[in-house]
Amino acid sequence: MTSVPTHPPARRLRRLLTAIGQWFDSDYTPDGADRMRAEEDRVDWMRCIPFIILHLGCFAVIWVGASAFAVWAAVFLYVVRMFAVTGIYHRYFSHKTYSTSRLGQFFLALWGATTVQRGALWWAYHHRHHHQHSDEPEDAHSPHVHGFWWSHIGWITSRRNFPTDYSKVKDLAKFPELVWLNRFDTVVPFVFAVGMWCFGWALEVHAPGLGTNGWQMLVWGFFISTTALFHGTSCINSMAHLMGKRRFNTSDDSRNSFILAIICLGEGWHNNHHRYMSSTRNGFYWWEIDPTYYGLKLLSWTGLIWGLKPVPQSIMEEAERADHHASIAAAQKAALVHPEVSSLKKVVPAAAAIAVATASAAQTTVPRKAEGPAIHRDVTELSHDNQGRTAAQGGAVADQG
Ligand SMILES: [Zn+2]
Ligand SMILES: [Zn+2]
N or C: at which end does the chain have fewer Cβ atoms within 10 angstroms? Predict the structure, then answer.
């Protein structure tokens, strides 16, 4: 590590050059990554220029116009890349909820990189940190601590959140190909954007009836689709701890939301996920729609992935107790608001007696803080796993050779 200049102009110039260097090499931290992470939160505009360009690029639609093909391509690319965020960056790299081969893992990392949400290791490092410090001051994107906008978009503009802490993702950092993709995290998005332009150009030449072209496909397939994808994903950071219902009394304020589950292909069942993060599915019941899980199930039939982890019976029983408790509480509330429910008790006293007996029999207390370490254990173990555990033990890449 070199010494840091003390004069303000020299320091500013150094920050500027560092930010530009990081556009191309996200591990370029001449002042040391630890020192950067220890800084106060503040927006680094220079570092964010590519991110601002991504948003501004959407306005180019004024010049390139629209065609049905380009719009549907944007929707399709939103869905397949949201799946990459949820099914790959989240449920594989962050939580290792299923297994794959080393080659399969590389393919998943490439797919994930097309989402333009930086490398898999950076993503997993921040996400594991979120689970370990949910809604505490250290949580980089808690709406309760930092407010809505900071947790939605602000936190990724802050210098302290740019570097990847490889010591927290040792299980992933042992693969040089993943580290390379993480370090040069603009390569895949750049190739993807150029690919979109070439695809549009080829369609213009070979299928002019579709009415699209290179620039239009670049704007719809890359800029608009990727910007929507970013904000869709960010809804989980900003709203999944604000909007919806809490089934489990976890030590954070995570919630289950049907709307967020639709936007983010099943990630809206966030309270379920905070209670038990090691299962492949976030929707615990058939009515908790979880398209990411259905997609992963399909992928497992191809042989690309395997070992999808179920929700343990003990967690399902806990869910049933919590739901039962919630319905009894709702019925009692309804009886206060609607006296006719109370008068019903006089008509069918036996039913009322059964309901009361069921309510008292239910074990409704769900552990709170006391269970914190157990809840967080999964990510803590993953973070320090450097021994190449087998799939049966919870590691994800199967033994090679
Ligand atoms: Zn959360
Ligand atoms: Zn998670």
Answer: C
